[in-house]
């Protein structure tokens, strides 16, 4: 990455456009504001923060796990869309950055990411023309994307020819599964797609890939069996294409979100002549919901599982009924698509984890807290755990980083800029 581009974010001037930035920071650069020693008490509500110690732990833990497993990691950058966090992942040894669409790729290129895996099919002629120019301008730019149909291959080849592409675009044939998202349905169909890629002069067959997380959403025996079955099929596809790859370049086999990366390693890491690339992304922030329950490091009883690094902070604004409190954070501030926030504790007050207190609904700007009794009076600030980090970062253009969310008075040590 271009370290200077990331470092330059500290020179951005704060103002009212950043809803986490307090008025005392307005007119100052990020660097200048941090030099004043702000603490959590300097910030208002609603608020989303990152725990710096947990972030560092998660990055190191995943890097060490992949190194021991003998696989590469290209973390999915769409989780955070935060170049500073991408930089930390790359510095820890990540092979590259995965992204989901072309606008995200352009953000990564603006910050100098040199190895990108686009976990999607790119068919937009204007986008393919931009990509062709980018590949020509930078011989060191390594780019992979997916394709899952012969028609998609035809359209890509047609657009790249029209753009006068000088370097072939490297593609992975995507294998899907029944009821899943994209991906050729079945190994035979995927082999046909690979044959079409081999006939297209503007494309180069670089391997196979897919996403097992679209086929299961739990760690039941049935869910894990579904994932294993899919991964075995992906391995079979790799074997069927063994003679089709260019000599001297190990073909990529890519799978793995943050829920089943252990199974990916068990089923694919030993494939002959395969460069296995995981694409886990949510692990960096982890959560206090979906991933807390399904992460391999939780299921496997690891000594150092991932830690939830995201916290919401919301103030009790109203107590209209004895067992109902309304908080000043809602859907505009916190994720809600895969589990509601959970009340963890009252700042400078009672622990809520393990009590009957729970959030039952979110409106645009309010959360409904029930059964907290006298533990959450009007004006109290609550710390909330959140579920599914992939829909948390997009709600904030700048997210304060705390030294530790568990400290009596957490210090603000950074401000993570996002680009959605």
pLDDT < 50 stretches = none
Secondary structural class: alpha/beta
What is the beta-strand fraction? 15-25%
CATH overall fold name of the largest domain: TIM Barrel
Q: How many distinct helices?
A: 12
CATH class of the largest domain, please?
Answer: Alpha Beta
| Rg (C-alpha, Å) | 23 Å
Helical residues, percent? 25-40%
Question: CATH superfamily membership of the largest domain, which one?
Answer: Alanine racemase
User: What is the CATH architecture assignment of the largest domain?
Assistant: Alpha-Beta Barrel
Count of all domains? 2
**Count of β-strands:** 17
* Mean model confidence by pLDDT: 97
Cα-to-Cα separation, first versus last residue: 19 Å
- Sheet bearing the most strands, described? 9 strands, mixed
Description of the structure:
- By secondary structure, the protein is of the alpha/beta class.
- The protein is built from twelve helices and 17 strands.
- The chain has two domains: 3-51 and 306-417, Lyase, Ornithine Decarboxylase, Chain A, domain 1, CATH 2.40.37.20; 52-294, Alanine racemase (TIM Barrel, Alpha-Beta Barrel).
- Strands 1, 10, 11, 12, 13, 14, 15, 16 and 17 form a nine-stranded mixed β-sheet that branches. Strands 2-9-8-7-6-5-4-3 form an eight-stranded parallel β-sheet.
